[in-house]
Design goal:
Number of domains: 1
Strand content: 15-25%
CATH class: Alpha Beta
Order of helices and strands: HEEEHEHEHEHHHEHEHHE
CATH superfamily: Alpha/Beta hydrolase fold, catalytic domain
Largest sheet: 9 strands, mixed
Shape: globular
Subcellular location: Cytoplasm
Helix content: 40-55%
Pfam families: Abhydrolase_6 (PF12697)
Distance between the termini: 41 Å
Protein name: Maspardin
Keywords: Cytoplasm
Structural class: alpha/beta
Number of strands: 9
Strand order of the largest sheet: 1-2-4-3-5-6-7-8-9
Number of helices: 10
Length: about 280
């Protein structure tokens, strides 16, 4: 049976092929859509290219200026934040909302702290507040530079397989992510993403108005446990803290309509997608 999510993503990728750009010796991939409206920078996690946000991009197309990025094969959090600031300057995004998920959420927090004059709003999604101790936990405890790449990929596959067993209704999402980790994300890119957190800096103080700080989490996120979610909120003190009752680590893929709704709300756009109730998602 054909995988609907992969087919939809591939259709989007054919319509909006990833462009490549060299910044400070690192080659980034990016998708740029729209020429008017509020600006939105989308930063994926370890298991996604920029087009993993395809459902949000398609829903917001024509109403926003969207830049969705794919990590290069080298560098880390500090270098990547600098590269993204330069990329935004090159394409004329001088004030923007930056949304990052997981690894991207950590990078987004660093970016917002380092470049507050560019950042109008920070949306830190399904992410962590510190890299302290992460080097002792799999897969970061592996020799990320020299371990066989198949060993790293098998580790991801094991975790994804367990999620599929527990949530058979999300089998298509798991297949999509397995395709990413299985080769759509190249070996150097995957190693760089893992090393970025393993050797990442602690986050600098954030100097944004509180109304410009937003968090997103999922109650059933298997990778970000409740204490870590609480620590993210305690550090950022967001005006809005959205919580998906279900959606796992990838609510933007699993719950795309609700995800678009919160983006519309934060970007000041009319809400055209599915609305949420107390049992679905909470904002406080």
């Amino acid at each position: 049976m054909a995988n609907r999510l992969i087919a939809d993503r591939d259709r989007f990728a054919a319509r909006h092929p990833e462009q490549r750009i060299l910044i400070n010796g690192r080659e980034w991939g990016y998708v740029s859509v729209g020429d008017s409206g509020p600006a939105l920078l989308l930063i994926p996690g370890t298991l996604g290219r920029g087009d993993i946000f395809w459902q949000q991009i398609e829903s917001l197309e024509g109403r926003t200026r969207i830049l969705a990025v794919t990590y290069p094969q080298s560098g880390g959090i500090t270098e990547w934040a600098s590269d993204l600031a330069e990329l935004c300057g090159r394409i004329g995004l001088d004030r923007l909302t930056v949304l990052g998920s997981s690894l991207g959420g950590y990078l987004a927090q660093y970016f917002a702290a380092a470049y507050p004059h560019i950042t109008e709003r920070l949306i830190a999604a399904n992410t962590l507040n510190s890299v302290a101790g992460i080097a002792a936990r799999p897969p970061y405890s592996s020799d990320l530079d020299n371990a066989p790449i198949e060993e790293l990929r098998v580790g991801f596959g094991r975790g994804l397989g367990a999620w599929r067993d527990a949530h058979p209704d999300q089998a298509e999402l798991v297949d999509l992510l397995m395709a990413e980790v299985g080769g759509r994300i190249s070996e150097p890119e995957l190693r760089a993403r893992l090393n970025a957190l393993k050797h990442g800096p602690e986050l600098p103080p954030l100097n944004l108005p509180r109304e410009g700080i937003v968090t997103i989490e999922s109650a059933d996120d298997p990778l970000i446990p409740p204490p870590m979610r609480e620590a993210v909120r305690a550090r950022l003190k967001p005006t809005f803290a959205y919580r998906f009752e279900w959606g796992g680590h990838f609510p933007y893929v699993a719950r795309p309509d609700l995800y678009v709704s919160l983006l519309e709300e934060q970007l000041g756009l009319p809400v055209t997608q599915q609305s949420w109730g107390e049992g679905e998602m909470r904002a406080r």
